[in-house]
Design a protein that fits this description.
The complex is a heterotrimer of chains A (205), B (669) and C (170).
Chain A (H helix, E strand, L loop, with lengths): L25 H22 L21 E4 L4 E3 L8 E6 L4 H19 L6 E6 L4 H11 L6 E3 L5 H6 L6 E5 L5 E6 L4 H15 L1
Parallel strand pairs in A: 3-4, 4-5
Antiparallel strand pairs in A: 1-2, 1-5, 3-6, 6-7
Helix pairs in contact in A: 2-5
Chain B lengths: L5 H30 L2 H4 L2 H24 L6 H6 L6 H6 L5 H22 L7 H22 L33 H11 L1 H13 L5 H32 L9 H26 L3 H24 L13 H22 L1 H4 L11 H33 L7 H21 L10 H24 L5 H28 L7 H24 L2 E8 L3 E4 L2 E12 L3 E10 L4 E2 L2 E5 L5 E4 L1 E3 L4 E7 L11 E10 L1 H19 L25 H7 L1
Antiparallel strand pairs in B: 1-10, 2-3, 3-4, 4-5, 4-6, 6-7, 8-9, 9-10
Helix pairs in contact in B: 1-3, 1-7, 3-6, 6-7, 6-8, 7-9, 8-10, 9-10, 9-12, 10-11, 10-20, 11-12, 11-15, 12-13, 15-16, 16-18, 17-18, 18-19, 19-20
Chain C lengths: L2 H7 L2 H20 L7 H10 L17 H16 L4 H9 L18 H31 L4 H17 L6
The chains are: A alpha/beta (205), B alpha+beta (669), C mainly alpha (170).
Chain lengths: 205, 669, 170
């Protein structure tokens, strides 16, 4: 079985039988290369984890949150790196995204729950993705809430790019050391968010 | 009491029928061949019939479930919605993983049935028998996937009254092409199972001569045609829907369809060398195996989510099955080729690189290297991840850079190969035959320069395209002059028509990539803005709402004539705005309008910023695709004056099929 | 068309003329000034080289995702500022993510494989062809004199060639 497949177009299989067969050193080599390539490919594919990106996993998880900056409603600069020392919850949203609108009452409730915890409570921030200040003002005027800081991602879009936010809404949890501890894609519920935070606090303690 | 869905039960029954008929069919037919039981062998078409019936039941059940929005099924919960319009609801069947596997099962059943029907008078032939066994085995695998990890009829969690699903991905419900692109692409993918099955059958029976090639020539050609059409329709869909004005983004899913196309194209060329000269047997078998294995690998890549892609479906355990099947296919094929190695050695020599067969070899080298590059680029992020545990992306610029020299090499071969004779070409002959094609190239180059084209790579491509079309036309003119209309049919002449189509596609692709111009135009209602010799007038800003979508649309009148309507549509269930372009198609250029940004215009807006792309010659890509399809059909039906090519030269085997016309071959068994 | 004229037309001088025309046209086309790159063209070429950080395998140029639109705006702003080169702009954008958004593999480290492997494959393939042709030539010499069979084959092939119309004289 010297003459097996040959993925490279060196069709030495087509060499004649009429004459004395010439040396057949090439064929085993080709076979070895093909087997190696296919085997390697198979190994790489088999060891790759599927479903990347579809889950809430992020390369940032358990790593320091990026030092992103944005601006507050009144235009002052907001720097995430200065928020160390307390738990921080970021909610990315736009004024016109339907799931954001749907989850809004839950966020109001969550903010209240955290406020009730006093100094242990997490700081809650809304990160505005692409809406204008007017649109956001109208959003909170109509739907309530917004008695927490609202950060506009208008300094080179640092938040979106650094956090790699997929579709809004997204909610991120950052611990007092500035380490990313959680990422929730799509709508959240207040109870879930609060209990997750509580669990993270206990794990840390 | 048990609220089991009728559709679910019916679908399960259908899939079970497919699974059982495939497994039993494969075993019974294989056993019948082994024991020489002719009566049992004649039963093979019955199993094929059962497979067709089972898959038809499953498809009908799925369509019915989608039609009545049967939310007891998990799949319908995922892709069904009361607001999806009728035709997209039909297409919802293949808008997610489970349904697309079901479509695969159905198409494969169709091909199995077609093979059984086509060869129904030859069921005694072990070659046909083994081919059917392979078809059954492949069918059994996909039925197993569909019955197991990707079950479209799995019961979903109980839903409250009044539940409504999200419907298919919004991108899959705003252009009619989603109805045609996936099924046609699948016809191409799955179609290559037939030549693959015959190749394996030839290896098993040892009848590795040219007989099986002749049997499967048309199957391979038609599969190739559907694959080509499917890929081009995908490009068209991307152009008409995605709003970035391009047709090809080197996305992993697109690459997955390109890979079998590349090896398939290499095959339909090099198979001519085998039919003519009896050489390259191992090579041709390898190409067929590679084509089939790459369709499986491509499905794995795109369905398992290991590579990031816009088209990727999220999947469960299907990836393990697909990867395992890929490994099995490669292993079995390699083993069989190794086992039959002694018979695969063909006598004969290729005398000169400057000959038709030499050109085919060069073509094969280029296509294979191209396929390797595409495969490498597609899995490269995984490779880096495995070696260094970090994430990378390999994107269009990489592929563009590497495919440019390859494209030019292919155009060069297309220019020269059609005039080359078999065996050996003399310098004088080349000078004679290439003369007018070469001047065609000069004319094309001159025309391009006059039209303002610049950059050496596009110009070289245009010039070579001119030579290639000259060479193709020369063949067609000579053949029609001699044979009348029959000069248009047959594999050489039809092939030249395909070449003309390829050239059109290539020229349009190069031109539209190299010479796209883009700008942003702020428009106000009633105001006329001029750009690049065209005028744009915003006629109105329209906002429409229905149960499913909010549409913000800008009606723009171009050149005082027709009105085009770029829009941004927000699908309420998804909450994500999606831009759709308005395209004015023309023979020399397209004007492609999209609304800039992602915020849809609001009611009462008087101004909109429009992004305008001017892209030359795009229309010719679709015309070229049509020509390729027509050419393939012409190539598949040889003129009656010429018999099917047989394999006379090289067959030293004692077996009679080597001399085989079909009848002789039946008699020989 | 008389064959004498035809033959004279296709002789060397006209091929040399053709060569000159081609070189001339290519020189004109390839060197002519396409005008300075417009800001739009710069934005396009830069955005084609950066992957959209959140979408699945699209470049910023193709993607219509808000994040990509935003990155495009950043690029536009920096291009308009006029003091950055393309490379600097790209560097500024991808630095935050450790180069994960570059769409073209770099030429060093493991990523050089992306360039080296295709080149190797091509060289191996060409070498394979050269070896195969050499072997065929040796075998052809060893085969020696053609038999009657061989002549029959040639005759048949030539007959088919005529039918194909590939062998005809213009």
């Amino acid at each position: 079985m010297s003459d097996v497949v040959d993925e490279r177009p060196a069709p030495d299989a087509a060499a004649p039988v009429g004459a004395a067969p010439p040396t057949r050193r090439v064929a085993p080599l080709v076979v070895a290369v093909v087997a190696l390539v296919v085997g390697g490919l198979f190994f790489v594919l088999a060891s790759a984890d599927g479903d990347r990106g579809a889950t809430a996993e992020t390369p940032l998880l358990d790593r320091p949150a990026p030092p992103s900056a944005g601006s507050l409603t009144d235009g002052t600069r907001f720097e995430l790196s200065r928020r160390k020392g307390s738990w921080v919850v970021l909610n990315f949203f736009t004024h016109d995204c339907v799931p954001c609108v749907r989850e809004h009452p839950e966020l109001i409730e969550f903010a209240e729950q955290q406020r009730a915890l006093g100094t242990d409570g997490a700081e809650f921030y809304s990160i505005v993705i692409s809406s204008t200040r007017d649109e956001v003002a109208q959003f909170f005027a109509e739907r309530g809430g917004g008695d927490w800081p609202i950060v506009f991602d208008d300094l080179d879009f640092q938040f979106q790019i650094d956090f790699g936010v997929v579709q809004v809404p997204e909610t991120w949890i950052i611990d007092p050391d500035g380490i990313v501890r959680g990422r929730i894609i799509s709508e959240v519920r207040a109870d879930f968010l609060s209990s997750t935070l509580q669990r993270l606090r206990e794990m840390r303690a | 009491m048990i609220a089991v869905s009728v559709n679910g039960a019916l679908g399960h029954a259908g899939l079970l029928l497919v699974l059982a008929a495939s497994i039993i069919g494969a075993l019974a037919t294989g056993l019948a061949i082994a024991t020489g039981n002719r009566r049992a062998l004649r039963q093979a078409p019955v199993y094929a019939g059962l497979i067709v019936a089972g898959s038809a039941i499953a498809v009908i059940a799925m369509q019915r479930a989608l039609e009545v929005r049967d939310y007891s099924l998990a799949y319908v919960q995922q892709v069904g919605s009361s607001t999806t319009p009728g035709i997209y609801n039909v297409a919802a069947m293949w808008s997610a993983l489970e349904g697309s596997i079901l479509l695969w099962v159905a198409v494969l059943a169709g091909f199995t049935g077609a093979v059984a029907w086509r060869f129904r008078r030859r069921t005694d032939d072990v070659l046909v028998g083994w081919a059917l066994v392979v078809m059954f085995a492949v069918s059994a695998f996909f039925a197993l996937v569909s019955f197991g990890p990707a079950n479209p009829f799995a019961a979903g969690p109980t839903v409250p009254v009044g539940f409504d699903g999200p419907g298919p991905n919004p991108l899959l419900q705003n252009h009619v092409l989603v109805l045609f692109h996936p099924p046609i692409l699948y016809l191409g993918y799955v179609g290559f199972t037939v030549p693959f099955a015959f190749a394996i059958a030839a290896l098993i029976t040892g009848r590795v001569g040219e007989g099986w090639l002749v049997e499967t020539r048309r199957w391979a050609l038609f599969s190739w045609m559907f694959l080509t059409l499917g890929i081009l329709l995908g490009g068209w869909w991307s152009y008409e829907v995605l709003g970035w004005s391009g047709v090809w983004a080197w996305d992993p899913v697109e690459n997955a369809s390109l890979l079998p196309w590349l090896t398939g194209t290499a095959y339909i060329h090099s198979v001519l060398v085998q039919q003519r000269r009896g050489m390259l047997r191992v090579w041709n078998l390898s190409l067929l195996v590679a084509t089939f294995a790459l369709t499986i690998l491509g499905t794995f890549l795109t369905r398992s989510g290991v590579v990031a892609s816009v088209h990727a479906f999220s999947a469960g355990e299907v990836d393990g099955y697909l990867l395992g099947f890929f490994g099995l296919v490669v292993l079995v094929s390699l083993g069989l080729i190794a086992w039959r190695g002694d018979r695969l050695r063909a006598p004969g020599v290729i005398d000169s690189p400057v000959s038709r067969e030499g050109a085919f070899l060069a073509n094969n080298v280029v296509f294979t290297v191209f396929a390797l590059i595409v495969l490498l680029g597609t899995v490269f992020p995984l490779l880096v991840e495995a070696l260094q545990d970090r994430q990378t992306v390999v994107g269009a610029p990489y592929f563009d850079r590497l495919s440019m020299p390859i494209g030019i090499a292919l155009l060069f071969l297309m220019a020269v190969a059609p005039v080359l004779p078999w065996r050996k070409a003399s310098q004088e002959l080349l000078r004679d035959r290439l003369f007018w094609p070469a001047w065609c190239g000069v004319a094309a180059l001159a025309a391009a320069v006059l039209a303002g084209a610049d950059g050496w790579a596009p110009l070289v491509a245009f010039a070579l395209a001119g030579v290639a079309s000259g060479a193709a036309l020369r063949q067609i003119v000579l053949a029609t002059r001699r044979q009348g209309w029959r000069g248009l049919v047959g594999r050489a002449n039809g092939g030249m028509v395909v070449h003309l189509g390829v050239i059109l596609v290539a020229v349009a692709f190069v031109a539209s990539n190299a010479y796209t111009e883009r700008t942003r135009l702020p428009l106000e209602v009633g105001e006329v803005v001029e750009w690049e010799g065209h005028t744009f007038e915003l006629v109105a800003v329209v906002v429409e709402q229905d149960a499913r979508t909010d549409v913000g649309r800008a009606d723009v009148r171009i050149d005082g004539g027709s009105i085009h309507r770029p829009a941004i549509t927000t699908y309420l269930q998804m909450g994500i705005p999606i831009g759709t372009p308005g395209v004015r198609t023309g023979l020399t250029e397209d004007l492609y309008l999209t609304i800039a940004g992602t915020t849809p215009p609001a009611a009462g807006d008087r101004a909109v910023v429009i992004e305008v792309f001017r892209k030359p010659l795009v229309l010719w890509m679709w015309i070229g695709g049509l020509l390729m399809a027509i050419g393939t059909v012409l190539a598949a039906f040889p003129g009656r004056r010429r018999r099917d090519p047989t394999a006379p030269v090289s067959e030293p085997l004692p077996m009679s099929e080597a001399i085989g016309t079909r009848d002789e071959e039946v008699a020989g068994v | 068309m008389s064959s004498g004229l035809n033959r004279r037309l296709k002789s060397w001088p006209s091929w040399i003329l053709l060569l000159f025309v081609v070189v001339g046209l290519l020189a004109v086309g390839a060197t002519r000034d396409g005008g300075p790159r417009t800001p739009d063209q710069r934005v396009d070429s830069i955005s084609k080289r950066i992957a959209c950080p959140v979408c699945q395998g699209e470049s910023v140029y193709e993607s219509r995702h808000p994040t990509s639109v935003n990155i495009r705006q950043v690029i536009e702003a920096r291009v308009d500022e006029g003091r950055f080169t393309d490379a600097e702009i790209i560097e500024g954008i991808v630095a935050a993510r450790e180069g994960q958004e570059l769409l073209v593999p770099s030429a060093d480290g493991v990523e050089a494989l992306a360039w080296a492997l295709p080149a190797t494959a091509f060289v191996v393939a060409i070498a394979g062809l050269v070896i195969a042709f050499r072997r065929w030539r040796e075998n052809a010499e060893r085969l020696g004199v053609a038999t009657d069979d061989d002549y029959a084959i040639v005759a048949e092939a030539m007959a088919r060639e005529r039918l194909d119309g590939t062998c005809g004289d213009t």
